[in-house]
Design goal:
The chain has 704 residues and is α+β, with helices and mostly antiparallel strands.
Length: 704
């Protein structure tokens, strides 16, 4: 494909002279199109070449005109044409005229503006509309916000939900109602975050704003990365999930058997290295199952009893239980809930059950073991669980009401085992010595879940837009990946890199939302309004995913809006999208438009320990740190034992001082480290909240 830009007069003459020769074929009329990303009322990106493309008969010429500029383009051997017109300043309206010769009807786009174009993408919190009329699926005051929407300088394109399970095939068309001005009816179904973000930019920049919404609720980040992106990162395993498209059942079964056989062999070798490594480290652990073993020096824990953060290896959990005389000598049933990944469970030193990697979904399978009556005695009895974790989080995951002991003969009379446990690490795996864990194959043909497959949403909802120049991206996603935060540390930067490459813009601004505060409560069974007040410091996946998102800021031209203070414990979709949009717009203005004003809240930078207290330093302090609503809260502190307790904290200039009388030699601090902290209140004076953080950061994070 090639194009030539000429003055209008010259082009007109050339066009007239060559018209008969160029456009006499009926084949041209059949193939002449303009891609559907273009349309009436669209906004084209200012300050960059204006790109228009479509199809035509191979070798045929197409003329494109906007304002005083025109250009010719020639269709390549595949019938594709594309041309760039000179960059223009913000303004309009203009008419875009695309002519394919005498035998083809010209395509005309009216009411076209030049301004700023942003892509809005992600899962349900980006998809959430301004106003749907349905319960729990509207932005705050969405009905009133939509009713007063009437801004002809804001244009919207709401991309339809569509998927393509063919990896690497970039669809040339887009599904959607087309471009439309921001009227009440157009705004209602549009992304609330996207619309409020664009409205703020339009107010501040005073230029036309074009907003493209391509989002789908409940989707993982894998769906939005191109097949090329995966290949560039050497992550072709993800593409196995869609490799079965078009296969027969017999072919699929054969392929699966081959993949599983190969994986089983690789994994069995790795698993042997895993346990052999531990055996060399802690031979004395063989004594830990014995009822007479003294575990008084072990750490106290309750259900859920998890591994230390970002640790793979083996931990023992022990608990003493008093058996009443009526139970002595009778068979019991031991319920331990889910144990991630594997376990060996002992009762009074005798193995009563075990689940290993040969069991399907072993990491989530609830443990239910029968204890023979001959092992059961009156008074003190000891339960010992040897738990192995080979990936991600691990331990006795509970919940607490699923862990108990009862008679095998009757469901009545349970002994709760939720509390009173002791734990000790047997060994921590050194993956540098034993190698990375082989991942299982992910072949699937479940068409109904294709939106969850790698590359499928990129193919149909993003790829068509890559010919359309944009200023940048706003992204709200992560809820579906919270359980795989280590992978997100790779996939989030990969998405950014992938999209920048597809748009041929290595510095394209990319803004994202950090996961909001949320706890899985039901509106019908909410529990106390202050459920979080008496909770002890704990670890969780949502905190780690937020940490991973924050680390992505090490990539140039990225920005993040913190949402820890606007979450809803009863709804994963916080309704206050206006506040969030304001924070996103401020970051956009800093990154894309050179604003020097403070646009984000404090970010943890470093720590110093002095006289039993921890002094924390921050970036983005702005004009100063403040505690919103009273004394600083949601800080926890730990000593060398790694056990966190709630701490006192105060602001000292541009630093925060953290301490606890219970921890004389602190080594680590955490802030707002919970799925729903409830009381996180560190801000800068500009009103932006501090990002949750921990000073004991894991190795997998990107480093600045």
């Amino acid at each position: 494909m090639r194009n030539i830009v000429l003055p209008v007069a010259t082009l007109a003459l050339a066009f007239l002279l060559g018209a008969c020769a160029m456009f006499s074929s009926p084949e041209m009329a059949e193939k002449f199109t303009v891609h559907k990303v273009y349309g009436d009322h669209m906004v084209l990106q200012r300050g960059v070449p204006i790109r228009i493309g479509g199809t035509a008969a191979p070798g045929k010429s197409v003329k494109v005109t906007i304002g005083e500029n025109s250009t010719y383009a020639e269709a390549d051997e595949h019938g594709k044409w594309m041309t760039d017109l000179p960059a223009m300043e913000a303004g309009g309206p203009y008419t875009v005229l695309v002519e394919g010769g005498k035998t083809s009807q010209p395509v005309r786009f009216d009411d076209v503006l030049i301004g700023e174009v942003w892509l809005c993408s992600g899962q349900s919190n980006m998809e959430m509309p301004v106003w749907s009329g349905r319960q729990f699926w509207n932005s705050l005051n969405g009905d009133r916000e939509a009713a007063r929407a009437n801004n002809s300088k804001i244009r919207l394109f709401n991309t339809n939900l569509r998927r393509s399970v063919s990896p690497g095939i970039e669809q040339e068309e887009i599904a959607g109602p087309g471009w439309t001005p921001a009227t009440p009816e157009a705004v209602k179904p549009f992304s609330a975050l996207g619309y409020y973000f664009g409205r703020r930019l339009q107010q501040d920049l005073d230029v036309p704003i074009g907003l493209i919404n391509s989002s789908w609720g409940g989707t993982p980040i894998e769906s939005w990365i191109s097949a090329d992106g995966y290949r560039s990162a050497g992550r072709t395993r993800e593409l196995e999930r869609i490799s079965a498209v078009g296969m027969s059942k017999e072919e699929i079964e054969k392929k699966l058997q081959e993949l599983w056989k190969k994986n089983a062999l690789e994994f069995s070798k790795w698993e042997k290295r895993f346990y052999d490594y531990g055996a060399k480290q802690t031979a004395e652990a063989a004594l830990w199952k014995a009822p007479a073993f003294d575990d008084s020096s072990w750490s106290d824990c309750s259900i859920p009893a998890t591994f230390p953060a970002d640790t793979d290896g083996v931990i023992w959990f022990r608990r003493t239980v008093d058996i009443p005389a009526a139970w002595a000598g009778k068979d019991l049933q031991l319920f331990l809930g889910a144990i991630d990944d594997c376990d060996e469970t002992y009762f009074n030193g005798v193995k009563v059950g075990a689940i290993g990697t040969e069991t399907p979904e072993y990491w989530s399978k609830e443990r239910k073991y029968t204890i023979p009556g001959k092992l059961v005695r009156v008074g003190r009895n000891v339960i010992a669980v040897r738990a192995s974790d080979m990936f991600g989080d691990g331990g006795l995951l509970g919940p607490s009401n699923t862990v108990y002991l009862r008679l095998a003969s009757t469901p009545e009379g349970k002994i709760s085992l939720a509390n009173g446990w002791k734990s000790k690490m047997e060994f921590k795996a050194d993956l540098a010595k034993i190698g990375a864990r082989p991942e299982p194959p992910m072949l699937s043909t479940t068409a109904g879940r294709a939106s969850h497959f790698p590359a499928t949403l990129y193919n149909s909802m993003i790829a068509p837009w890559t010919i359309y120049p944009i200023r940048g991206v706003i992204w709200y996603q992560g809820e579906s990946n919270a359980g795989r935060y280590e992978d997100y540390m790779v996939l989030h930067p990969l998405l950014i890199q992938d999209w920048r490459k597809k748009w041929n813009n290595p510095e394209m601004p990319f803004l994202f939302v950090q996961l909001a505060a949320f706890e899985r409560h039901s509106p019908k069974n909410p529990g106390p309004a202050d459920f979080w007040v008496n909770r002890q410091p704990a670890d969780n996946n949502w905190s780690k995913l937020r940490e991973v998102q924050t680390a992505t800021l090490a990539i140039p031209n990225t920005g993040m809006a913190v949402a820890i203070d606007i979450g809803d414990p009863f709804d994963i979709h916080p309704s206050d999208k206006q506040t969030l949009a304001y924070r996103m717009a401020r970051e956009a203005e800093r990154i894309a438009y050179g604003s020097k004003t403070v646009s984000a809240g404090p970010l943890y930078k470093s720590m110093e320990i002095k006289d039993g207290k921890v002094y924390l330093s921050f970036d983005n302090v702005g004009s100063g740190l403040v505690a919103n609503g009273g004394e600083l809260a949601s800080f926890a502190i730990a000593g060398k034992d790694g056990k966190f307790v709630w701490a006192k904290a105060k602001i000292d200039g541009d630093e925060v001082v953290v301490w606890s009388d219970a921890v004389k030699e602190p080594v680590a601090v955490r802030y707002a480290w919970s799925s729903y902290p409830g009381n996180a209140n560190l801000y800068n004076k500009e009103g932006f909240p501090a990002s949750p953080f921990r000073t004991d950061q894991p190795d997998y994070l990107l480093k600045k």
